[in-house]
Amino acid sequence: MNERIVVGVDIGTTKVCAVVAAADDLNRINVLGVGVAHSEGLNRGVVVNIDKTVAAVQEAVGEAERSAGVEARSVYVGIAGDHIQSFQSRGVISSRNGEITQRDVDRLLEDTQHVAMPADRRILHVIPQEFIVDGQDGVADPIGMSGIRLEANVHIITGLVSAAKNVYRCIEKAGYEVADIVLEPLASSYAVLHEDEKAVGVALIDIGGGTTDIAVFEDKTIRHTAVVAVAGEKVTDDLRKGLGILDDQAERLKHQFGVALVDLVEEDQEITIPGIGGRPEKSIGQSTLAQIIQPRLEEIMEIVGIEIKRSGYGRHLSAGVVLTGGGSLIPGTAELASEVLGVEARIGTPLGLAGGLIEEVNDPIYATAVGLVLYGLRHETTESALLAVGVGGDGDTLVTKLAGRMKSWFDEL
């Protein structure tokens, strides 16, 4: 049985997660290994210390390799940060022989990228929204259709070249190749959203340590993406300042006793806080903790609400919102999101896995790493299928072009 093995690496602000998974001939996905390392080399999703990030990547991927019993050569890696921007674009071409082929679609998607952009930005993803064949709109897949004029509306996601180069450099210094750099909310969506949610309209909210990532879907297509630089670290920071304690003590309190809504605190249990610099310890109620946490989470949800409204799809979210990432683990976060955004909310954990270490990754903190693996497996399958039918002759598909072009930016260093 042929197994395709893929490694996903989520380089986060507070942790680096690595997941090794394999797909068999029936496309059943098994998680073979998982690794996590504490991360100190990023600030708000962007690499600020290469050496610390390299050490964390080596530790996380090494742990995943050991538990999987395999050696990784290339990895799919996530990118986030508030430098990420997205916009809509449109392209048009003429079909050469009256029947639309994969080569025509690739030419068209290439055409949509001819947009004026600052020198310090590059395209990360080109996501088709819809195709229009001879004026007939609403076409999801035009290949094989008869038509002369082919148009497309696409969603283009861009990032800073320097931020992408630093992620690339960290992976290479850690001893691995980059198979592809993937926007983190796009990766997370592969792991935690049901296909029917994407069809009727849903917003994914990934609350990490340094950034909150947003992706809005409708008609099975990503319609809007955004990255906001307010997330779980700010909650920890508020606790540290509000209670006069150390960072790691604030983080521990948040995990053990944190509640997102004051109204959800039933028994106001006493929590002992250690004194700083030899001062005596003191006690506070759990409701005091909630009173510090709730305003910051409300602020995050309000910013998310503004982004969803800006997308123009605010009234289309029949499936509401799905929360994931470490920040969604605070009890009451889904209830708070539902209250602020006025839609249904649920916590998203990785779906679609057949076997292996499923229990180990059944947690919102692994959403991006599992999503990167699912993205990698899907794209490798697509590429090999296209090569098998001889599309582009030498495999010159858009996916290959984009990956190749990204590699060329880094080779310029």
Protein described:
By secondary structure, this protein is of the alpha/beta class. The chain folds into 2 domains: 1-84 and 159-193 and 351-413, ATPase, nucleotide binding domain (Nucleotidyltransferase, domain 5); 194-348, ATPase, nucleotide binding domain (Nucleotidyltransferase, domain 5). 38% of the residues lie in helices and 29% in strands. The chain contains 13 helices and 19 strands. The protein has a 6-stranded mixed sheet with strand order 11-6-1-2-3-19, with helices on both faces. β1 and β2 (15-23) form a beta hairpin. α1 packs across α3. The two termini are 41 Å apart.
Descriptive terms for the model:
413 residues; alpha/beta; Nucleotidyltransferase, domain 5; 2 domains; five-stranded mixed β-sheet; 38% helix; 29% strand; globular
Summarize the SSE layout with pairings.
Elements: E1 4-11, E2 15-23, E3 29-38, E4 42-43, E5 46-47, H1 50-68, E6 74-79, E7 85-94, H2 102-111, E8 121-133, E9 136-139, E10 149-160, H3 161-173, E11 177-183, H4 184-192, H5 195-200, E12 202-207, E13 212-218, E14 221-228, H6 232-243, H7 247-257, E15 270-273, E16 282-285, H8 286-311, E17 321-324, H9 333-341, E18 345-347, E19 355-356, H10 358-361, H11 367-388, H12 392-395, H13 398-411
Parallel strand pairs: 1-6, 3-19, 6-11, 12-17, 17-18
Antiparallel strand pairs: 1-2, 2-3, 4-5, 7-10, 8-9, 8-10, 12-13, 13-14, 15-16
Low-confidence regions: 386-401, 409-413
Structural class: alpha/beta
In percent, how much strand structure appears in the residues? 25-35%
CATH superfamily of the largest domain: ATPase, nucleotide binding domain
Query: Which sequence of strands runs across the widest sheet?
Result: 11-6-1-2-3-19
Helix coverage percent of residues?
25-40%
User: Could you tell me the number of beta strands?
Assistant: 19
Largest sheet: 6 strands, mixed
| CATH architecture type of the largest domain | 2-Layer Sandwich
Shape: globular
Number of domains: 2
Give the mean pLDDT. 88
CA distance, first residue to last residue: 41 Å
| Rg estimate, integer Å | 22 Å
